[in-house]
Amino acid sequence: MINAIGYAAKHSYSRLKPLEFERDEAGPSQVEIEVLYCGVCHSDIHQVKNEWSNTVYPCMPGHEVVGRVSRTGADVTAHAVGDVVGVGCMIDSCRHCEPCEAGDENYCEGPNSWLATYNGPMVSAKKAPDGHNMYGRDNTYGGYSSVIVVDQDFVLKIPATLRPEVAAPILCAGVTTYSPMKHWGVKAGDRVGVIGFGGLGDMAAKLAKAMGAEVTVFTTSKDKRDEAARLGVQVVMENDEDALKSLKSSFDFMLSTIPEKHDVNPFVALLKRDRTLVVVGALEPLAPINNQAVAFSRKSVGGSLIGSIADTQEVLDFCAEHGIGPDIEVIPIQQINDAYQQVEDGDVRFRYVIDMASLQAEHAS
Amino acid sequence: MINAIGYAAKHSYSRLKPLEFERDEAGPSQVEIEVLYCGVCHSDIHQVKNEWSNTVYPCMPGHEVVGRVSRTGADVTAHAVGDVVGVGCMIDSCRHCEPCEAGDENYCEGPNSWLATYNGPMVSAKKAPDGHNMYGRDNTYGGYSSVIVVDQDFVLKIPATLRPEVAAPILCAGVTTYSPMKHWGVKAGDRVGVIGFGGLGDMAAKLAKAMGAEVTVFTTSKDKRDEAARLGVQVVMENDEDALKSLKSSFDFMLSTIPEKHDVNPFVALLKRDRTLVVVGALEPLAPINNQAVAFSRKSVGGSLIGSIADTQEVLDFCAEHGIGPDIEVIPIQQINDAYQQVEDGDVRFRYVIDMASLQAEHAS
User: Fold this and answer.
1) B129 shares contact with chain A (CB less than 8 Å)
2) Is the pLDDT of residue B362 over 80?
């Protein structure tokens, strides 16, 4: 066993605190990774607070993990000791279902679905159709920790030109916005609307712009408006009815990154005929969608969940190639609870990324 | 002017009563049609009762019109006196916008959108962006009438092997269900779910079956269950939770024909990954859609509105070729108010089709 330390919540109402625990040694196909940085995702907070009613405690979040390979199993060929690598939202999947065969592991239809980096498996043994747990564990501990052990197939290569702390949020926020834009065929010249400008919205706007799209960001915050404007994209306040009216039926694709229940109807109106608005931020019931507006231009409202391993590698490489990445603020792990509060208050201009050296320092002291 | 008679409502709370009126003589490109039969669509009732808050009175419904050409304008080449022809939901469109150029007149983006067969134009001059009415009329009178005059491009050919009274509902119920199945690529071997089994559901099930799909009808009515079973398709009661559970993630396409606000979530669960549920029955806000279920398999919920003129001709020809059509009950127009009540009560096994000879008889007497 490997002695590890991380930050975890013991209950839905608990603050995150240090937790010593053990990880299994790397098996033949696994990679042991010393964690260098871990991004803070809004879903970490949802999960810690049990807002999706499926949290297993203790809950140690973190699925935007970048680190250095410290050990490899005997059969590992894809990664070598010393490599800078990443781990996103998944650390395994059933590998045999149709989506897995098609390279869409994030839609794994195995009895426990994919194995989430923390709080996994996605479908617990208790809820699986046959009560079977293929992964042999009912909880996983994420990247708010000193070390992580992951199968080589679920470990991403971090391009040399990406700073590791900048790469971290690409592993979730990046691929979550990149994957639907790829799936729904966003291309150069398209008009793309990005609704909400947090960690996902920031990445969506930068990725769409790098794809050659004409990007409009919709936000309710004047601070975020100014921030988005610096990307050289159009920015519209969501309450600016005249602006919304002038943009009617003009978008080829819209992506909603708002991380809670919201009303997509004003944005459905901005889509061209036959186009789709995709919701990636909210994993909950939306406000009622008016089918009159949807049907009158044969539109659709879809959803998308993170992205495949191949998409994740693709978006990392795409970011490196185009010199883009999230705006981040590096924090020591001791500030994590305050950071959560600020994310919940919508009071963040940057994606928080935890410098894991702070954990080692605390542990050593 | 042509002296005409029809059945119309004077107010939202009125019963339909005979109304004498005048129609313009056929212009050079227009066709005068003696109406033989007119189908009764659930939307006739919505419109008469002003349930979409846009009804212009008097309201003379009817957009499933079959008749015989009685006169043609000088430039008419497509139809000849004596031909049995049909008129569906539209009698004109702007013809210059991108959807019109693409042959999608039913999504016309001209300032008044398409000209509805009754209660047209779709967007009134008052609500049009520039206050302009391209059609020169603020109301149109539909097929519950002795005669109708329509531009040749919006007149359909009724195949000789289709009885005219059977052809009538294909002009709305048929194309409304055919068009989205074509657009979303339903093909032989697909599993298609049809939600609701009224006039639209009946046509959807027959069309999908004729396309070679494996069809399942979902209904809440035991009478309709038995009726649908006679088509040789699978029928599932919507409240049969075990059956719904066993059908999870198994459909390639689902079509909701329920004509009012409803909850699509139980049916979204039945779609395969990456597939779409399309709502054609309800032109109003749906119950809140749970984006968690949508996103977890990259599904979509879309809408579709009737179909193009080309689609309408195609579905008429398809029905003739495959020997399918709606189950109908022919009624005299004097029974129209009772028929409305029965449609509203969901108490109809057949599509009502008005025999217009009854109107002439009344008029003559």
Assistant:
1) no
2) no
State the pTM of this model. 0.93
Confirm if B108 and B63 have CB atoms less than 8 A apart: no
> Using the beta-carbon criterion (under 8 Å), do A273 and B249 form an inter-chain contact?
no
Domain map (residue ranges) of chain A: 2-172+325-364, 174-303
Chain A residues within an 8 Å CB radius of B289: 285-286, 289, 301
pLDDT digits (tens, 9 = 90+) for B171-224: 999 999 999 999 999 999 999 999 999 889 999 999 999 999 999 999 999 988
DSSP A228-297: HHTTT-EEEETT-HHHHHHTTT-EEEEEE--SS----HHHHTTEEEEEEEEE-S--SBPSPPBHHHHHTT
Q: A77-136 pLDDT, tens per residue? A: 999 999 999 999 999 999 999 999 999 999 999 999 999 999 989 888 888 888 888 998
CATH topology of domain A2-172+325-364: Quinone Oxidoreductase; Chain A, domain 1 (3.90.180)
| Of A109, A283, A302, Cβ closest to residue B249 | A109
Q: Which residues of B are less than 8 Å from A98 in CB distance?
A: 273
Nearest Cα to A45, choosing from A262, A285, A341, A326? A341
In B, which residues are within 8 Å of A267 by CB distance? none
Report the pLDDT value the prediction gives residue B241, as an integer from 0 to 100. 95
Look up the CATH number of domain A174-303: 3.40.50.720
Nearest by CB: B295 against A104, A288, A303? A303
The interface pTM score, or ipTM, of the predicted complex is 0.93
